[in-house]
Amino acid sequence: MIHRGRGIIKCVNYNIPRETSEMEGIYHCPANYVPLSPISFLERAATVYGDKVSIVYGSNVRFSWKDTFDRCVKVASALVQLKICPGDIVSFALHT
Q1: pTM for the complete prediction?
Q2: Which GO terms describe its molecular function (predicted)?
Q3: Domain hosting residue 8, numbered range
Q4: Judgement on whether residues 48 and 22 belong to the same structural domain of the protein
Q5: Does the chain have fewer CB atoms within 10 Å around its N or its C terminus?
């Protein structure tokens, strides 16, 4: 929850370190700061940028951020179903 009072924004009851950005003077809290993992980055990019191009390969292959996120989730799901664990070595052969 964010409380505003006397020009100060304060984060309350969160386990996120309360840091102030030196460049922007922003108080980091869940409303404006979330550490990104690769999947959360792709999820956010898919939400924010949706149909904008994320990957270009050659002259014919283009993927949007939504396509990229969907494909990564499918690969991650397949790896889980195959019981692939962190630390296992995985190789991909891509067809173009």
Answers
A1: 0.59
A2: ATP binding; ligase activity
A3: 1-34
A4: no
A5: C
